[in-house]
Amino acid sequence: MNTKILASLIVIGLVASTIGLGTYAYFSDIETSTGNTFTAGTIDIAIDEQNPWVGRYSLEDMKPSTWKYIEFDIKNVGGNPVVLWKHLRVMGTDTGKVTEPECTDQGGLYASPEGPCAWNNPDKNDIDTKIDYDLIVGDKIIFAPEEHIKISDINSMWMPLGTLAQGDTIHVKQSYHLESDAGNEYQGDVMTFDIEIYGEQLLGPGPSESTENKLFLDNKDGDPNWNFIADGMWGLLKYGDGATFKYTFEGHGLMATTEYCLIYYADPWPGNNPGKLIDAMTTNGSGNVNKAGDVELNMDIPALPDANYPVAKIWLVPCADYDKTGYKMKVWNWANYLFEANKITYDDTGV
Hints:
By secondary structure, the protein is mainly beta. Helix content is 8%, strand content 35%. The protein is built from 3 helices and 20 strands. It starts with a helix and ends in an 11-residue tail after the last strand. The model is unreliable at 1-20 (pLDDT under 50).
């Protein structure tokens, strides 16, 4: 066959095929969503209907055994539930007005009739160590008077207040009590301090670490939002960076006569990523414990591959629930545990 004729037949065939494709129809439908928007949610709180908060408090003429109160309402004026923390930061302590008893009781010489004082010893201005602090949120007592928590204990430490639903209000009541044994060396002394309330969305990471290496531990309710609960069960950890982990811990409302483990819990479950047993301690018959320790950890906290890196979780759990050598949880009894109110870091200068 003539090759030119064959080529023509192929071209004709291709054209015919193309024409044939155009003769088919397809059923179809198009639906269009128009005017779509992306809007960020809101987290916003007001204090005593002030937003921003401009309240200022002055506790005047405090004397030994005197009690005075600071109270305010927190309202969730944002569009979502909010988790709340409170932070009290001592900005300074000062001798204030110097009196003759304050001067002479500290070994100074007072020039009559109005001074000044010739100090033979440094003036004692640590009045924050002599002020007891109590805290009630709603109908829940966080710090009770008989626990004798000092301002110096909680200075620069974030304390969880609970969760507030959209539109709800909660009342916060704090007492400041100058101890009965505060002597003349504290006459006229002044402490200035700031109060901060921090609100965050559910399941957020929490506020930043305390600037004074203090950590509040509290029980949580185990629901999907993992809220803190004020049930009288709590702990206070103070620690410092160094070649060893030097710490003090006090706990309240725990199970009586029970050995507890203070642990570095490293996510994910069961917490040995790498995790670490910091120390063990046993509660008394009332479920309270006080312990000071100096522990060689041989590691920084946190350490990779902890999923929380570069910060770490600290828990207090019954030692019966914990593998002390494998550094991991054995069971999950969350109602008996204390969890970190915010995450920490520890720099082991010995490694």
